[in-house]
Specification:
Length: 170
């Protein structure tokens, strides 16, 4: 994929924005939203729409048991969800917030709506329909950990019926 990071922002900035402005309150939800933002970007790019991204070439998702995970964000954020007194660490600069809001809120709100109506396991179920995750998990037991990387070229691909399933979750 040819997406360029010309926004002068990082995936870490997006994660901070999600926790600060969108009230993301668990590592699992943060990972699902980050993955679906990436999915939507790559899908648009595959359809010929020029895209800018906060993801860099080395920002790869891994095929974990409950769906794709961005390892650096997971290990950088996981402990903060347990301590309310440390939530002030997640305050995004207002200029960054405006850029991220304009760029990503449509995608984010789409998947938060599914989460709010159906719970986190529906988002996990959707990620398990993604071809990149399925191929990265090939030959691995469903309960076995994996650090296999997802192929960005396959992230926009899903099993037949994914869009219908997505529409049913709304």
């Amino acid at each position: 994929m040819k997406l360029k990071n010309n926004l002068n922002l990082t995936v870490n900035d997006l994660a901070v924005y999600l926790v600060d402005k969108k009230i993301i309150n668990s590592p699992l939800l943060l990972q699902k939203i980050l993955f679906f933002v990436r999915y939507e970007e790559l899908k648009k790019e595959k359809n010929g729409e020029k895209q800018e991204t906060v993801f860099n070439i080395n920002d790869k998702f891994e095929a974990w048991i409950n769906g794709p995970v961005h390892r650096d964000i997971y290990f950088g954020f996981r402990n903060f969800f347990n301590f309310d007194d440390e939530k002030d660490v997640f305050k995004i600069d207002e200029n960054k917030s405006k850029i991220l809001s304009k760029r990503y809120d449509f995608f984010i709100d789409k998947y938060l709506n599914i989460y709010n109506k159906n719970g986190i396991w529906k988002l996990v179920e959707l990620t398990h329909k993604n071809i990149a995750w399925i191929k990265a998990r090939k030959g691995i037991d469903k309960n076995e950990p994996s650090t296999n990387k997802l192929d960005d070229n396959l992230i926009p691909e899903n099993e037949p019926g994914f869009e219908e399933i997505l529409n049913n979750f709304k």
